[in-house]
Amino acid sequence: MQRWLTSIALCLLLGLPVTAMAVDKPYFYPYVNPLEATVMELPPYYHADIPDKVPTKTFKVYPFPEREIPQVFWYEDGLVCSLNAQKKEAPLIFIIAGTGARHNSPKMVNMQKALYQAGNHVISITSPTHMNFIVNASSTTL
Asked: Over 10-66, what HEC string results?
């Protein structure tokens, strides 16, 4: 037990100076503090030029067609996804929304536009922590 505690203490002591050095060392980005930069939104003047609209088709998937959805979830009818398809052959990219977000949340739409502009087909899926995914696409093994 003492060896385990000593190992943790050593890791913590060694980790503190490294973190302090990383925060104090400036680099080229609008935020000098790298920890701050990980949580702050990108300033508008750094945004890429992406199209205002891209062709988007919304569709539903039924991963478990035999599943009976409880009546309390009457509004849930299939896992809603979206497709941004190129007119020619292209790589296919799947993107999954962040925690609790839908397939068409603002950040997902921006990513769809950027990936579409780069020449990819894009399929967007709602977050596994969103009710639409939980009710229609989650599975359990008992």
From this structure: HHHHHHHHHHHHHHHCCCCCCCCCHHHHHHCCCCHHHCCCCCCCCCCEEEEECCCCC
